């Protein structure tokens, strides 16, 4: 049994050496950090996984953008040329890409009524402005946001508790213990006198 494991481990070591040698060969054009859509991406990751680090890009969207840009999903981000990086950057910054509307994260926008997809800072700004608008008109969801309570109808009996510290009964026992220790000290002092 142990001999079989040793035999299985021996071929794996040369493969690791081959991979490290291939990394050294690609180091001339390889970039360890690539900036796409105002986000620094790790060059060692595969393209489909690296694009998911951009806020607002899911697995399905990164897959779709790779297909539109005609890039291999398993290719590393650091191996992309400048033209390919610029092509991806333009695709991601486009708020209305040529994708099915159900992939977008902002459908039927309140201001314009358009379907669009936002990424990065635009996404956070629109999310915060939506919450600000709900608070301003004082609808139920806005009031729940103001109170810091759950917005989507969850029960609050056991979850979403504010005081996450010790429970009142525990506090009382701690206070009682401290009081008994103080009495014991006083008794010792009186006994010495």
Describe the 3D structure:
The chain has 193 residues and is mainly α. The protein contains eight helices and two strands. Among the domains are: 23-94, Helicase, Ruva Protein, domain 3, CATH 1.10.8; 102-147, no CATH class. It is 52% helix and 4% strand. It has a two-stranded antiparallel ribbon. Strand 1 and strand 2 (39-42) form a beta hairpin. 11% of the residues are buried.
Task: Write a short abstract of this structure.
The chain is mainly α and 193 residues long. It has eight helices and two strands, in the order H-H-E-E-H-H-H-H-H-H.
Architecture (CATH level 2) name of the domain at 23-94: Orthogonal Bundle
- Give, in order, the helices and strands: HHEEHHHHHH
* Content-based structural category: mainly alpha
Stated plainly, the CATH topology of the domain at 23-94 is called Helicase, Ruva Protein, domain 3
**Overall pLDDT:** 81
Estimate what percentage of residues fall within beta strands.
under 5%
CATH class of the domain at 23-94: Mainly Alpha
Computed over alpha carbons, the radius of gyration is 29 Å
Total helices: the number is 8
Strand runs, count: 2
Characterize the largest beta sheet: strand count, sense, and whether it forms a barrel: 2 strands, antiparallel
**Unreliable stretches covering 5 or more consecutive residues:** none
Termini separation comes to 78 Å
Shape: elongated
Helix fraction by DSSP (H/I, runs of at least 4): 40-55%
